[in-house]
Design brief:
This protein is mainly alpha-helical. The protein has a domain at 28-76. Helix content is 60%, strand content 0%. The protein has helices at 29-44, 47-76. It is elongated.
Amino acid sequence: MPMGIDFGLNNNFDKVHIPKSSIGYPADKRRKKERMCQKVQLKKRSDLQRAKMLFTWRQDGCRRMEYLFTSYRAALD
């Protein structure tokens, strides 16, 4: 697994290992590139699909922040 946080969109956070050094840093560049590709794909899709995808992304983002926060708190204790 590459350094940095590799977020799969399948949300299996119990299996994700976050090295302490990478907490708070953005994920690796490959992930950013993938996200850009997905955004380009978004423009080609219908409005309903676009809304669905954006909604799942938003949920994913909230869950990710929640997870990072809890793991960070656990690291501080």
